Amino acid sequence: MNKLSRSQISAIDQQYIWHPYSSLTSPIPAYEVTSAHGVRIELSDGRQLIDGMSSWWCVIHGYNHPTLNAALHEQVERVSHVMFGGLTHEPAAKLARTLVDLTPTGLEKVFLCDSGSVSVEVAMKMAFQYWQSRGVTGKTRLLSLRNGYHGDTFGAMSVCDPITGMHHLFHDVLMQQVFSQAPRCGFDDDWDEAYITDFETQLSGHCDELAAVILEPIVQGAGGMRFYSPHFLQRVRELCDQYDVLLIADEIATGFGRTGKLFACEWADIAPDIMCLGKALTGGYMTLAATLCTEKVSDGICQGEAGVFMHGPTFMGNPLACAVANASIDLLLSSDWSERVQDIQSQLQVELAHARDFANVADVRVLGAIGVVEMKQAVDLATIQKAFVDRGVWIRPFGKLIYVMPPYIISEDDLQLLCHAMLEVIASLP
């Protein structure tokens, strides 16, 4: 096929392509990308944008990294894909061993899957099949936190916030789960046992029908970019043990250093029964996720009636994805990522503090390489997106939230430019 012109690409995009959370009758502009290097995305008109989103939080090493490029080139010369049913390969074996070594103690079994949402589906299915295999047939629901977000597939949608979340339109066709209040304790707040009261009430009142609790540890992401106390997570772990309910930690957005710990569960020094990983797992190069569980969970499933776990994606354990995941994790661990994330946090705290003086701002909060400005009113995406692009940055807000989660390699100067553009646009809003 001949190379398409810019106008052809734009016309095809507007006529045929359905972008995430977008309208085909009233589309907002989609900016054509021709290349990306480091923390910069280059548009077809030559403009370069400093990326403040890490392409939805996954490009932690920046774009076009030579180490990750080399891993893909080397693997594609061997085998790009082979079915995982009855076959295995070195990239998957290395990745599984690494994930077991890095994640909290006790997570010893690894199920490789396609995406974050699928990882959540797998975790839910693991929890349900575990209890069914043990002959406990009544545990068919999950307890989730309000303001949580776990993905766009049907099982994952059912544990997202049912009212303020993005999936309330599907309420009547989703599994009806149990919800407790979102954590009311900020990350640094002194602990008050009242913060856990509603959670314990829901857990104790429904424990006979609950297969698991599912939550995003420490940071509630797309459901509100809210940070909560590690003590809350500690108490959740204790209560799950007390009421004999499994705990699923959704670390898809928080895993691999984003909060300042390698995994957010480390803030509370707890280990879940099941953990979901994705996003930064491959450094943003390939779609890949993983669901880890304890031997208790895997034994419970495999010693039951079916004798096997009833799931198997076509692209499970894709060698290309596993190879670049291994390279990405090695790159992260060989770097000073912890110090770098701390530096990003410190600069975000200083730079974004100015937004507290704006009349249209409700709150400013920072944790690790996450900086959030919460507005008093929802922003118009098309208008604010153009304003950011015109200032040479890529920031994609949603609702009332204007936030950045930049690649860890971002320089002090580029982060300053990113924050200054953010403040300029916020100051211009009503």
UniProtKB/TrEMBL annotation:
Catalytic activity: (8S)-8-amino-7-oxononanoate + S-adenosyl-L-methionine = S-adenosyl-4-methylsulfanyl-2-oxobutanoate + (7R,8S)-7,8-diammoniononanoate
Binding-site list for substrate: W56, Y149, K279, G312, R396
Pfam families per record: Aminotran_3
GO process annotations (BP): biotin biosynthetic process
PROSITE patterns on file: AA_TRANSFER_CLASS_3
Keyword Oxidoreductase belongs to the record: no
GO molecular function, one term: adenosylmethionine-8-amino-7-oxononanoate transaminase activity
Cellular compartments annotated: Cytoplasm
Residues annotated with N6-(pyridoxal phosphate)lysine modification: K279
Chief location category: cytoplasm
UniProt keyword annotations, A-Z: Aminotransferase, Biotin biosynthesis, Cytoplasm, Pyridoxal phosphate, S-adenosyl-L-methionine, Transferase
Necessary cofactors: pyridoxal 5'-phosphate
Pathway participation: Cofactor biosynthesis; biotin biosynthesis; 7,8-diaminononanoate from 8-amino-7-oxononanoate (SAM route): step 1/1
CDD domains assigned: OAT_like (cd00610)
Gene Ontology CC, one term: cytoplasm
Residues that, per the record, bind pyridoxal 5'-phosphate: G116, S117, D250, P313, T314
Enzyme Commission code(s) on record: 2.6.1.62
Family named by the database record: Belongs to the class-III pyridoxal-phosphate-dependent aminotransferase family. BioA subfamily.
NCBIfam families noted in UniProt: bioA (TIGR00508), PRK05964.1 (NF004624), PRK07986.1 (NF005940)
Protein name: Adenosylmethionine-8-amino-7-oxononanoate aminotransferase
